[in-house]
Specification:
Strand content: 5-15%
Order of helices and strands: EHEHEHEHEHHEHEHEHH
Shape: globular
Structural class: alpha/beta
Number of strands: 8
Largest sheet: 8 strands, parallel, barrel
Mean pLDDT: 89
Strand order of the largest sheet: 1-2-3-4-5-6-7-8
Length: 255
Amino acid sequence: MMTGPDENMPQNPPKNITDNPIYCALDTVDAVEAVALAKSLKGAVGGVKLGLEFFSANGADGFQRVAATGMPIFLDLKFHDIPNTVAGAISAVMPLVPKILTIHTLGGPDMMCRAVEIASIEAEKQGVARPCVAGVTILTSMDDTDLAAIGVQNTVADQVTRLAKLAHFCGLDGMVCSPKEIALARAATNPDFKLIVPGIRPEGSAAGDQKRVMTPLEATSAGADILVIGRPITKAPDPAAAARKIAENLAISTN
């Protein structure tokens, strides 16, 4: 029988993720480049995202080098395995003190509940802040045709709604969803559930490999809490200026 999180376990939900909702995706495997970008963006964005490619190439050492810049870090590794393996993986990265950590909601309720539980236990044990544990629903590179190809008969919208409800029930702090599913995800959860939204493209930017995109202002107006923006910032001639321009359009104060 499916059960929610153990109410007797310490949950210690994370406080406000950031006052600036822009997290810049540092899509590089070069640690030197990542550190330089993080330094240049300090004060212009709320944090940076390090993904699977970077962590596979540089590991904990690379993470710590970026963290030394003082930037909050969204560690986007999308853990997806049996509950004990995911718990072990979360225990292994907790000493890094990521601000946000992702798991796949498709791992099921037991895996999600265990992820929140172990993050809370390890945070209390180590005396560090617990990361926002966020569930990945349907990758923004996928659409209804892609779901059908892997045997999922639901539409993307229906599947995101189902997974959002499940993630919320299991005690996750938030979820990753495309801009087009913000309203669905919010309706399926509550106002405190953090919506972390990739697939953000400022006016005039190319969509790239994202199939479900939205501008930053459209996304925040729809209810997004965190905007994950990569190439429109990192590939700009002046990344910090590009980030500040986006923030200004959102009426965010930067320094």
